[in-house]
């Protein structure tokens, strides 16, 4: 067993942990980053699959994501706009396919009015929601005790309006059924993006990508940290007291003054804390769980949909693939779709064989884009539910009542232990931007603490 000493030990080499380590190193402190995987990046992962560069994890950059954009610029990376020229596609409950332009789906006039009314209503509630303290909303307890699905049912009898509004929060973001999370959790999701209007605007949320892939952010951060990043080092035990911590892996011990646990909350239980964490944290962490989504990648010889005047953007709460986008790489002559199968629909298709699942998913894509969508040259499913060190996607969210009950303690340090990841963020919640913000904030709080001044 090798033992080393550092000022701060960081558990997890995702964007949050690496950002915190970078900030602490800038301030003159020594660090060690311990990562269970054989790569850095956490939920950012760019890889070559059958000759195609695919963004297996997170990939998009939004205009309001200042922390991420600053980091991208500081690292010398370039971005490019998502392809969105042409008409979008919408499929209704009857299976009718309609091409359209603009942000509102081609629904009946009555349903359109209901969708716009619900968006306005949600924008009003979001305006009262501080993303860093959603539990301070004047109706926090009430809104946290009703599921988003039930809230929609109370607000409108228009099923198509409910289905579409629900899709943006449930399927597209929290990746849980709308009956499984609270309205307050939905408001936090929207507030983290500035408004519900921003959240439902694909051209805002999914604005740009990084040339060469977003995993370059953690890769370049880790390169600057050099030998202070230790891969394949799952922390089994964390011994702590007011004098410091010892993080123990299978073959390494790191003795430090403080520790930052920079992994998703669902993984805290993989670490044996000695002594155990306080009762409050034990209860709190049990009320958080990951969502579940399959990110589908389909690469074609050409972006054939563009020739037909289509943008590659498609939506339907009634399709297996509830949303799809042109995900063609910068400078690539081939065309790529990315599509998403979420929550209960993902559960269902994982009862099938891989070939049956592939056929079902590609058939759903073909409903939007025609028979050519059935025959990609590369096909891949990002299944984060099988990742031992993630266990779902995109992030952890509270069960009913959990956010108002426990949210105020979500980021509270315990002695020398701090917590930092995108799951805990306010602005930028469950996005890389939030991970970077949390990394910066956690490092700043440690640097401001008396024992390290």
Span from first to last CA? 31 Å
The CATH top-level class label of the largest domain? Alpha Beta
Number of strands: 24
What is the percentage of strand-forming residues?
Answer: 15-25%
* Class computed from helices, strands and strand pairing: alpha/beta
Could you state the CATH homologous superfamily of the largest domain?
Answer: FAD/NAD(P)-binding domain
* Tally of separate helices: 16
Alpha-carbon Rg, integer: 22 Å
Q: What kind of sheet is the major sheet?
A: 7 strands, mixed
Number of domains: 3
Low-confidence stretches: none
User: How much helix, percentage-wise, in residues?
Assistant: 25-40%
Strand order of the largest sheet: 9-8-19-20-21-18-22
Q: In one word, what is the shape?
A: globular
CATH topology of the largest domain: FAD/NAD(P)-binding domain
CATH architecture heading of the largest domain: 3-Layer(bba) Sandwich
Question: pLDDT average, as an integer?
Answer: 97
Task: Put the structure in a nutshell.
The chain is an alpha/beta fold and 453 residues long. It contains 16 helices and 24 strands. Belongs to the flavin monoamine oxidase family.
